[in-house]
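Figure 3 (text version): structure tokens given as input.
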């Protein structure tokens, strides 16, 4: 199996080899170049009497004039005291998530009430996680 780069390298070597074997006939080359220039209409150098000058659509159609004052000289940004909607939505979602985690923590504490009273288990909250810590006296007598 040949990779693309190997194939391209081999093709390049092949064409370089073909070029090295080729003999260039100068008379035939000039004849061919002349026929190609006639066929494709190669432009000949024409001496210019004057230097061509560039034109611009701005200079052709517009003329400088005195600036006109606008209706309002200054633009001010108006701000409101409202908070953006995505911030308030984020706070609402965070509050709902906190309530759910708190309810889950209470359920876990009630389920493990007897072990908590004995002192072998602790239930803690760490961010969005409810951790159940079992002390060594709770696991091994």
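Below: residues designed for each position.
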């Amino acid at each position: 199996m040949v990779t693309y780069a190997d194939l391209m390298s081999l093709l390049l070597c092949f064409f370089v080899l073909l070029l090295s074997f080729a003999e260039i006939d100068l008379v035939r080359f000039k004849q061919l170049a002349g026929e190609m220039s006639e066929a494709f209409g190669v432009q000949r150098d024409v001496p210019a009497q004057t230097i061509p000058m560039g034109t611009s659509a701005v200079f052709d159609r517009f003329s400088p004039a005195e600036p006109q004052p606008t209706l309002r000289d200054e633009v001010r940004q108006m701000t409101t005291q409202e908070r953006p909607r995505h911030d308030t939505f984020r706070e609402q979602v965070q509050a709902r998530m906190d309530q759910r985690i708190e309810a889950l923590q209470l359920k876990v504490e009630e389920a493990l009430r007897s072990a908590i009273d004995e002192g072998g288990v602790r239930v803690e909250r760490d961010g969005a996680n409810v951790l159940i810590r079992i002390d060594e006296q709770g696991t091994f007598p």
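The radius of gyration is 43 Å.
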